[in-house]
Amino acid sequence: MAKHNFLVERYQITLGDHPKTFGGTEVRARGVVACFGEFLRLIYYFMPEGADTPNAMWSEDARLCVVFLPFSAMPAFVDVLRNEKPIYGNIDTDAPGDAFISTLHEPVGEEEKGGGFFRR
Questions:
Q1: Which residues are CB-contacts of 44 (< 8 A; sequence separation ≥ 6)?
Q2: Considering the chain, what is the average pLDDT of its residues?
Q3: Number of helices (H) and strands (E), helices first, in the chain?
């Protein structure tokens, strides 16, 4: 079992029909969020509601974790990547579907610079 935590240094958002084949299954994601660290990548494919998807996967050779989520979850990921820092990717190679992004502990009432969910 290996758990990897990495600083997300860059990200890329793709919207639109994004066909790709994973493990022999073709998926047509409506959106993609890719998080890039120095040596690791965590890519979320956001699928139409009810779409058949393969299981999440980890590729040791590519140092890549791929996770499939419903399209309705995409805005929250985009908001965090645009409005928080630093962001960390967290991957468990034995349970790639449990991968997540996170911030560090922050003080209660911290105001975000430049927006976020709440503006004053």
A1: 32, 33, 34, 35, 67, 68, 69, 74, 77
A2: 90
A3: 1, 8
